[in-house]
């Protein structure tokens, strides 16, 4: 089942005033789903556990209705309470193997990685996918110290391509500053051959916050991004 997950247009939510404004998170996600996002991560760094569970349940209903997986950022306990498809953990959160022990083999578990070493460890611990970044500086996550750019992302992809079976197999998305104006250039640059060394592993999708959550028309915006992502040959 989880081998079939489509990572091509990965929505990461944001509940902050700067991006969501006074709009309702669940309604904005519903619009994004109708526009064609293929997987959703509920990311809310400030709400209390009760609120997280309540919103996650509503999001899960919306996602399930369209066969789209819902993951929870950071909080394995919330994913467990809601019974959604998985979690996304960063370097400061519960690690992938601990999350796996709690959520089980069918859960989708992703990890943020900024270096080859972090990628190696996350795959060794059983991550299904890696969120590689930060690609470009972004107002959405201001405190990030690891802006790795196209070159840093390609280094990790090249490492994975030459790695173990699990490293070759792990799914990847890039994150940070991706929008409709740069999606095609980014995927082109990430996938460009690099003779004489091994070509980088293809990414499987792009993870996006503000270009969807902050859009005036989240449905139109995600529909446009969906069309662009469908034109990327590797996103199959
Ligand atoms: N992790 C690395 S960058 C980032 C996260 C959650 C935020 C990306 O936001 P945006 O608005 O798509 O640049
Ligand atoms: Mg985290």
Layout of helices and strands:
Blueprint: E1 9-12, H1 17-20, H2 25-35, E2 39-42, H3 49-65, E3 70-73, H4 76-82, E4 86-89, H5 96-103, E5 108-113, H6 116-124, E6 129-133, H7 149-161, H8 165-169, E7 171-175, H9 183-191, E8 205-208, H10 210-213, H11 218-230
Parallel strand pairs: 1-2, 1-8, 2-3, 3-4, 4-5, 5-6, 6-7, 7-8
Helix pairs in contact: 2-3, 2-11, 3-4, 7-9
The structure holds 4-methyl-5-hydroxyethylthiazole phosphate and magnesium ion (MG).
Please name the defining characteristics of this protein:
globular, 8 strands, binds magnesium ion, binds 4-methyl-5-hydroxyethylthiazole phosphate, 11 helices, eight-stranded parallel barrel, 42% helix
Main beta sheet: 8 strands, parallel, barrel
Distance between the termini: 16 Å
DSSP, total strands: 8
Order of helices and strands: EHHEHEHEHEHEHHEHEHH
**Regions with pLDDT < 50 over 5+ consecutive residues?**
none
Short description:
The chain has 236 residues and is of the alpha/beta class. It has helices at residues 17-20, 25-35, 49-65, 76-82, 96-103, 116-124, 149-161, 165-169, 183-191, 210-213, 218-230, and strands at 9-12, 39-42, 70-73, 86-89, 108-113, 129-133, 171-175, 205-208.
Describe this structure in words.
The chain is α/β, with parallel strands linked by helices. It is 42% helix and 15% strand. The chain is built from 11 helices and 8 strands. Strands 1-2-3-4-5-6-7-8 form an 8-stranded parallel beta barrel, surrounded by 6 helices. Strand 4 (86-89), helix 5 and strand 5 (108-113) form a beta-alpha-beta unit. The longest helix has 17 residues, at 49-65. It comes from Ampelomyces quisqualis (Powdery mildew agent). Condenses 4-methyl-5-(beta-hydroxyethyl)thiazole monophosphate (THZ-P) and 2-methyl-4-amino-5-hydroxymethyl pyrimidine pyrophosphate (HMP-PP) to form thiamine monophosphate (TMP).
């Amino acid at each position: 089942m989880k081998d079939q997950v489509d990572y091509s247009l990965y929505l990461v939510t944001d509940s902050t005033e700067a991006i969501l404004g006074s709009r309702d998170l669940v309604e904005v996600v519903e619009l994004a789903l109708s526009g064609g996002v293929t997987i959703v991560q509920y990311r809310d760094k400030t709400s209390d556990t009760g609120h997280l569970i309540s919103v996650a349940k509503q999001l899960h209903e919306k996602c399930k209705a369209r066969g789209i997986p819902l993951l929870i950022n950071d909080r394995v306990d919330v994913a467990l309470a809601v019974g959604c498809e998985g979690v996304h953990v960063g370097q400061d959160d519960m690690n992938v193997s601990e999350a796996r022990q709690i959520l089980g083999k069918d859960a989708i578990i992703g990890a943020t990685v900024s270096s080859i070493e972090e990628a190696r460890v996350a795959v060794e611990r059983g991550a299904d996918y890696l969120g590689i970044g930060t690609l470009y500086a972004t107002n959405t996550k201001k405190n990030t110290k690891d802006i790795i750019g196209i070159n840093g992302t390609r280094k990790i992809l090249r490492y994975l391509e030459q790695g173990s079976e699990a490293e070759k197999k792990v799914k990847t998305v890039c994150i940070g500053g991706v929008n409709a104006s740069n999606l095609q250039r980014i995927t082109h640059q990430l996938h460009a051959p690099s003779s004489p060394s091994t070509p980088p592993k293809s990414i499987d999708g792009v993870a996006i916050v503000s270009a969807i959550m902050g859009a005036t028309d989240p449905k139109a915006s995600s529909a446009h991004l969906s069309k662009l992502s469908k034109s990327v040959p590797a996103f199959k």
